[in-house]
Amino acid sequence: MADLRALLEQGLAEGIGVGHSLGIHLDTLEVGRSVWTLRPSPAAANAMFTVHGGVLATLMDTAMGSAVFTRLPADTYYTTLELKVNFVRSVALTAELLTCEAKTIHVGRRTATAEGTVTAANGKLVAHGTCTCLLTPA
Question: What is the chain's alpha carbon radius of gyration, rounded to the nearest angstrom?
Fold first, then answer.
């Protein structure tokens, strides 16, 4: 977990990655669980001037992948193999902070799965989904 946290902090400091470009930030990192936040902004806009579904999917993919990463041996890499997102409601670009909580469901030798939810500041569900990650030796 320390390695992941160091990589994330380096990326933010150097302006690299989705955290920097979309405003996705790590809040909590525990074994099998991660919490990430996103403050909507014009950079996240779709054609209807709401938060783009792809931005929400990226938030979820980041959180679920991080939750999986915390359960992997040091000599194992992962990549998202499949991502399923259900969008429940739209989010205005002026909305308050969104929170995505992700937890691992299964970590095997070749694949891992996780689930995640995105909630608005008022606690309402915005999106939920699952992912499957492919695990490979380093």
Answer: 15
